[in-house]
Amino acid sequence: MNKWNFATLFLIGNFIICILLPLDGPPDHPDFSVPFFLQPSISFAETSNDIVEPTVEEATKDWKDLNWHSDLQSATQVALDKRLPILIDFSTSWCGWCRKLEADTYSDPKVWEKLDAEVVLCQIDGDQERELTRQFRVRGYPTLVVTDSRGNEILRVGGYVPPETFLNTTLSFLSCIDKVVRYEKAVLDGKVDVEANLKQEFENALPENADFLNETAWNWLTAQKDYFHSALVLSQKALNLDPENRSILDTVAKAQMLTGNLDGAVAGYRALAQVDFPNSKINLACTLAMRSTGEDGKEAVRLLRECVEEGWIP
To answer: Can you tell me the distance from the alpha carbon of 231 to that of 284, in angstroms, rounded to the nearest whole number?
Structure first.
C-alpha cells in the first residue's frame, strides 16, 4: 500500500466494473453500467417515482409545426384574407445562425404561440430565390422582414435574436403595424384630432427598447418614404428612453427635417455639430439652406466651407 493509495485502487475498481457490466444495464435502471462517480448529479425528484414533468409553458415547441409558406405569393394571399402582417424569414441550408433561430427562438412556447396567432409566416431559401433576395436587399442570413398584408416592408431584423428579445421587440411591434398605416393616413388627410389620438395610441403600443426603435425609425427614413411621420414618433420615444444617445438625436433631427419641421431639425443638428457628431455640419448646412432665410444662407455657406477644409466634403 506504500505505492498505491486507497483512492487510486477505488477508481481502478470502478473502471473495471464499468467495463465488465453489460452496457444496457438492468431494465429498471438504464444508467447502471456507468459507475456513480461518472454519472451526472440528479435531484431526488428525478430518482423518485414522482418525476416532475415540464409544464406546457416550459416545454419547447417544434418550429416546423407552424404554418410556413414557401412562396411569398401564397403568404400574401392568406395575409390579405386574414388582414395579418407577413414575417418573411430569409434563410439558407448552410446558415448556422438560421438553425439556432429556429431551434431556440421559433421553438420557444411564447414566441411560437404569438407567431401562430398574429402573423403569416413565409420562409425563403436565399440560394433558391435570388431575385426575391435582391428585391428585399438581403445581405446576410438570417434576415427577417415584416410586411403589411400587401407586402409593404414595415420592419427588418438582421441576424439571430434570442427569444426574450424577439418577443419584446419584433413581435411586440406587430400590434403597431396597423396603427402606423392609420396614423400616416390621418396625417396626410389633415385630420388633426384623429392624428393626435392615433399618435398617443401608437406611442403607448411601442416597445420600450430605444435601440430597436431608433434602428426601425432610421430604416424608415432611408428606405420607406411612406412612414416619415411614424419614424418621428419612434425616434422621439427612443430619445425619451435614452436622452444622451447622439445617434438617436441624429435620427430625430432627420425625421424632423423630412416631415417639414426645419426649426426642430436645425436645433438637433446644431447640438450634434457642437460635439462634432459625424456629418452633423453637412446636415445642418443643408437644413439651413432649406429654411432659406438670409442669415441661414450665410451660415450654410460657412459650414460647407468648414466641411471642405476638414475633409468632410472632397
So the answer is: 20
